[in-house]
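Hello forum,

I keep getting stuck at the same step: I have a sequence, I want structure tokens, and every attempt I make locally crashes halfway through. Rather than fight my setup again tonight, could one of you with a working pipeline run this one for me? It's a single chain of 736 residues.
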Amino acid sequence: MQVSALLAALEPDSAPDGTSKARKIVTLALLGVLGGGVVAGAALPVSSTAGVAAKLASESFENLPDALQTPPTAQKSLLYANDGTTLITEFWEENRTDVSSEGIAPVMKDAIIAAEDTRFMEHGGVDIKGLLRAFVSNTQGGEVSGASTLTMQYVRNVLKNDPTVTAEERKAATELSTTRKLQEIRFAIAIDDELPKEEILRRYLNIAYFGNKSYGVAAAASGYFSTTPDKLTLGQAAMIAGLVKSPDEYDPVNNDEGEALGRRDYVLDAMVGTGAITRPEADAAKAEPLNLKPTKATSNCTAVSEAHNSWGFFCDYFVSWWREQEEFGSSPSAREAALKTGGFHIVSSMDPLIQNEAAREATEIYDVDDKRAAPIAAIEPGSGRVKAIAVNRHFSIEGNPSGGNYPNTVNQLVSGSSTSAGYQFGSTFKMFVALAALENGITMDRSFVTKGPYISQFPGGSDPKCPASPYWCPSNASASYQDGWQNMWTAFGKSSNTYFVKLEETVGVDEAVDVAKRLGIQFRAKADAKLAAAPDDWGSFTLGVSLTTPLDMANAYATLAADGKYCTPLPVQTITDTTGTASEAASKVTQPECKQVLDKDVARAGVDIARCPVGQQPAHYNCTKGTSAEVNTIVGRPVAGKTGSASDNATESFIGITPQLAIAGIAVNPDNPNDFVGAAVQDEVIVAVARLLRDSLKNQPIKQFTAPSVKISFRSGSASSAETPPSTPPSTPARD
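Reply #2:
Ran it on my machine without issues. Output:
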């Protein structure tokens, strides 16, 4: 067959119906004749090329690889606040977002055709005329050319970027070989048969690399001009189209603009040649400067905007959570890779108002330059959705002038991690003892007369307060305030150590530890985990000596506000994929994971005693002089809570709860537990949490706590027969 006849047969419009396969075979046969100089841009043996062409021609052209039928290109994932519109950050390995054909300006399509494949609308996926020209040029020592069409480039881009295959397979997609080139041509012909030109063009523009970390036209429009691809002007489109030939060389953001300008003008002239624009339009566009408005392409939690830097701590917690979800991969690293390539649209649980206010309140306690920290966590009772994760630090990987971990850090100081077990939350742990007692039939009016030093039944010894005793001897911070007769309401309100040690002896430490575990306390520190496994002699447990985190404590108390329903902390609301739908896995992990861990009446009783510290009254009793009575005035709605002071005021903490929100805050030196923060800062922590509750709930309805039963409140079953102080209190506490 003459070459002219071959060319006629290869033109799509000239081939009769039913001859598509014949045209494909003729194309590959001709390539075999032309040799490797055309197909690979290098002098490869003609016999080898012809043999491969014959083999490929005998195969079915309709069996495209899955990647070419539905390209699994890496897509960036977007993390939003709970309103679904406020962007927190992006996650990507390749900065890419697919757009529809309608979302791409016509001038952009015209520009890429003029720059890369002027006969795109005419050929059948492979431009034989271009191949012949390339053959002549290559064999006569001219410029080496492979005559790749947009469709062929698209094939190569898909195969080398396919995230579902190995790195070796992706590398093979660009190797210099006759087999690879001929297969690329075969796929291009099949794609041209199966897809409209407009769809091929759309796919190409969404996968091509345009330099400056911009994959696809959407990233390029944003990265160079801070716009969207549907709003690109003629000059902007021509510049972007010109980048494809050599993205790094022509990139005007990271290189001199001169190269990009020259390439842009070349594309404008080419567009005149294709008839896409007129000469005056081209000249007018050439006269324009580039007018770059670059948007820096950043990814991950450190890319959170400086204006909302505190969001980075929530983001980091979200990533830690994501890495634990088996639905997204077989290992933490595989799950993180899925996050960076899966194109997920994630609406988180973070409330921007609460997050911003929490960050502000943390810096009211300590400045960002202070070595001490004020971690704060807020969570929603009944769902476990985390509303805020904040601390007085910059979320940054930058170095620190102090040489320590402040003011810049990416350490997870709020929710805990493998390197941060948490902090001592002091007397807030008395709640676990109270709940254990309530579960075991001990009512809230159960009273003891105690004073310090109290000789407990727990081993200790060598205590200077009790030199002759082999037992642990706890005391109260204020004898006049906390010694003497107390019941569960008054003891919790005044935070009497000796009362709760006595109550702990009565019910058993193992019961209290079990309650703490059910409410989400994790005992991350090895020493604490060992004691929690065999806690009978762990008398100091009720004084909060175990390390835990603000998030764990906020959620433990949130369980009380939810009538005893514990919900695993959850940082997301919805997760959808590139199709805008939620997969079965995504739907599963976004649903609150809750279970009833306390009897409702027990939980309500726990809230009831926690009304006393904050200056409010329980349902069936009166209490006064709570340790944080100012909370009632600040919050101005039903509230409960508890203060905590670690031994020697090493830390100072407060947890406040309402039916809609639970917040825990603490003052601590996270890097040095021996740097005691002192008692004075406790009021600042209390006020910070109280104000945050008030401001977070400003526009929400006032909800009441449900009162506990009279049965769980009074041993007699009647408020009129409550336990009362003895007429003559014993001078020393009894041990029984």
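The radius of gyration is 35 Å. If your local run keeps crashing, start a new thread with the error log.
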